[in-house]
């Protein structure tokens, strides 16, 4: 007799995101050892399983992928809103980071953020911050899949160029058996890294097959600075340094011009669209239509929670799809199917994992998001694609499966104690307020 | 011994929205006969009450006001998305309206919408559709406060001008004892009503003190048509017809120019900002900064669910505040406090009920929205104002009180059976699909 498999999920509307964009009704998914084993009709076949999940009346889709975030900033949520960017950074975020960034702060804030991602239907993130081991530990505990970037910045002195990337290699080895974690290099930006540092990042990345993750042209000012300092537009500057030819995710990429977009289209470059953050900080609106037209791969990201102030990728999808219809004066622009693709398969492509994730297909990792439709605000349902984008929200995320494990069940986190995380967050808040003085009501 | 009062709500952070924008911590609110009777410190005083509501750890604020919607369109949610406006209207919405708009359809769809408003923290709406009695009945059943507009359109023939407004007066009399309901006149728009009809609406409104509610300059095309047909920009045309001098809410008001905005600022005009709908239909982005600068009263609205596709006013607040920071290149533009005011007190002013609603003050109607902060995605909290706008969403709406009655408790509707509403919606969906053929997946 065959051994029981790990999990069978049964019922509902399955958005496979496969090559034919198949939508399966009332089928079941067999999952074992973290992967999708089979799709089957439960009236015709059974898979004996140790665990079953009834997904009738739900939409079952690949887990959402958040391609650019800063997990350990969770405790800065809403700390200083409606302020000019420079005031926000210089008077609040940077001084606080200078004072607060202990190992305990980072690992606890990252755990908070990782758990929040899961509650929002996100199964994989790409993070950029300091202290990769603390962030790795947090994601592992929450059960969140993550590519964790070593933020590279030139502060008073340049980083140790000889050892750059060593931590990435070391952590890759340490976590070789953990299916959830991977690591990459995250030079912060062209303005925060010297030319020498960026060249060194490119060398290390090329040598070891490490992917890159960086901020690009988030503000008009940094583009002007680049032109003045280097005589080149940012994307041309990246080309000169050898970065552009390497697989990379560029966060924001708002102030690029058609020449730069064409260059990116000819490179293994993806753009992480951060609409909420870009609007809230008044950074601008990226030329999304031009990127799509020239064939640049696009995906979504929340950015850090401090500039959002949530980690809700469904909200990013809704906002971006609507915003760019208006920007392009075309209600048919960026239709729901493409928007869902950007949040799943295109995002997997951006992270170089499209062979393993981003769609529900046999052999792929079992990373799934289950949206419930029982509330009246989710009814009626005519088209599941547009429903995901325009109607459903964080409220409807019922279950989340990552690597075959149910990490959210009926809205409840299964691997961490939410009440405890809330109490921890409140304690850190008190410490931060003590640092800053009681400036907020 | 004093009689028990109806309700005491105790604890949490109370955003009063009063003249001093006071924020009360750990206080209690005494409510009786639908009104706010007292604010008090429960450690120093008690009010014996028949019912108590523990709001510790919550934000307690005035109920949100949705100033422009079409309740009976609930069953059209997501029916035909990502389509050009004319296709959407001509091939889907209008043919369906022509076939489906029975009394049963309207009253059931309106009940669905009314219940959804409540789940989203909305305590009052201003509606525009057909069959006011059916909509009134639905709002009354759900316990939602509503100003219901008689939509006036010239179809093949002009409406009966002699009797225009009679239904409003009749329904005002019929529902004189119902504190939830009021009625007004809603000439659809300058393009859907003849000059004669609009003049008649102005006459009736002036004569009987009826407020007006209309669509204005939602598309560039209608502005061009007005210029061509009447030789005037829309707001100047409204002035000529005697509409502009009357208290009115103008929905959308996107394609107005500075002359028109100045004229509106000198009139009892308010604008209902419908950001989600305007982006999704690619109608455009209104000149919000210019309205505020010249002193036009602004409030928020979801529009009908068919062009949104939700009835989430917290999402409108978040979107609008962020969008206009980017449009104005200023992250400090439209700060959270002003955004919350627009959703409450300014909206009450738009509807002419600012003496009765829009803030939590002694003597005002007890219309309240309670947002829970227990989830980790709601923590930490530094500033309750920005928290309401940027962090919290429909998911955090825990309780809603309208006219002193708890109509939502722990996310559950108290006056209607949600599961029944869902089943009814599904039945109507099947009927509509039969009408249209199985065109959607």
In short:
The structure is a homodimer of 441-residue chains. With 441 residues, chain A is α/β, with parallel strands linked by helices.
Structure description:
2 copies of one chain form a homodimer. The mean pLDDT of chain A is about 95. Chain A contains 15 helices and 19 strands. Chain A has 2 domains: about 110 residues, Urease, subunit C, domain 1 (Roll), CATH 2.30.40; about 290 residues, Metal-dependent hydrolases (TIM Barrel, Alpha-Beta Barrel). In chain A, strand 18 and strand 19 form a beta hairpin. The radius of gyration of chain A is 21 Å and the shape is globular. The longest helix of chain A has 19 residues. Chain A is an alpha/beta fold and about 450 residues long. In chain A, helix 2 runs parallel beside helix 3, helix 11 crosses helix 12 and helix 11 crosses helix 14. In chain A, the strands form 4 sheets. Chain A has a 7-stranded mixed sheet with strand order 3-2-7-16-17-18-19, covered by helices on one side. A 4-stranded mixed sheet of chain A has the order 5-4-1-6, with no helix packed on it. The interface between A and B is large, with 75 and 75 residues.
